[in-house]
Amino acid sequence: MEGAVNRDLKGVALAGGGPIGGIYEVGALAALDEALVGLDLTGCDIFVGVSSGAFVAAGLANGITPRDMHRKFIESEEADDPFEPEILLQPAFQEFGRRLASLPGLLALAMQSYLNGAPPHGFAESLQQLGRALPAGMFDNEAVGAYLARLFSAQGRVNDFRRLPNKLFIVATDLDSCSATPFGARGLDDVPISRAVQASSALPGLYPPVEINGRHYVDGALMKTLHASVALAEGAKLLICVNPLTPIDADAVARKTHRSRVSLAARGLPSVMSQTFRALIHSRMRVGMERYSKTYPDADVILFEPARDDAEMFFTNVFSYSSRHRLAEHAYQRTREELRRRADELDVVLARHGVSLDRACLADESRTLSRRRRAPRRAGLKQAASQLGNALDTLERALR
Q1: Is the whole-model pTM more than 0.90?
Q2: Rounded distance, CA 70 to CA 149, Å?
Q3: What residues are annotated to the active site?
Q4: Using CA atoms, how far apart are residues 247 and 64, in angstroms rounded to an integer?
Q5: Which end of the chain is more exposed for a tag (fewer CB within 10 A), N or C?
Q6: 251-288 pLDDT, tens per residue?
Q7: Could you tell me the residue ranges of all domains in the chain?
């Protein structure tokens, strides 16, 4: 009987949430990885990733542990090829130039249409054709795709779905058909993993659609928040899900902090839009989670997400170096707290799949995600100068 339990397929499904979401998932997964006995997150059978969750899922499928991701993506300790969040905000100059170059022709076409009396007949209506000159995205995500291609082409990793020892599904949205496309599925596994991640994280308006085999793809979260059903349909019996974005309850925050309630409207458009977007995707995800219990009654789906009074998660500035560190540590500690709080409930569910909680690990309050680094005892002048330069670069980025 024990062997039958251990043969259950296990999976991880990760929702999107932009850079903040990816950082939160790395911290949360680090806490889960060390607390779940009998479950190696990089050794799961099935991975599903959407948007920023696609970055993390692809890393796990390639054997990169959550702590390794923290070191590479958040602490930026990769000496040869560090990841800097600034590459996410590179202006799409090529897209701007291409659209600008089309403007004279579109203007001539609009004027010709108006003068010939062809529909639309009005002058203002004729000018609507100029909308085709507007960029499809403000920022260029080609640098992100190139970075991931280098990362997954390193020794011991693969940028090919078909060469993975497990199943990886990166979900994007086909822009023209408005349908979910699970790259990695049969017939969709010839696309490089890095290209699929780039497509899945192409949020409309921010990044141009990504062309793959003659079709254009955008953020996979347009159709569903989590796409956990992809893993369940593949036979996952234990599915660990992380959703990094939840709407904030300002009243709950006020009660927790014993301070006056923060008005989101007073904080302007970014806070209003963030709350709106989070509310939409979270309510949609909750409906999906309830449906999974009926559609897949023999599967256990465990969801981890920030609490509604988590102000740290809502207001973090991801492009601050210190904030990235703080958010990852925050996600790590909050997930540990949640595991302790839900321990009795989770023990019952996990036991069905040969997994248990490491209570001693969870009780150890000295554990942190960030490593404490010691300075070398002796360093030459050149090495010291290099270290000083790196420190000044980090300080400059933090002050931007």
Answers
A1: no
A2: 19
A3: 51, 219
A4: 30
A5: N
A6: 999 999 888 888 999 999 989 998 999 999 899 999 98
A7: 8-89+139-363, 93-133
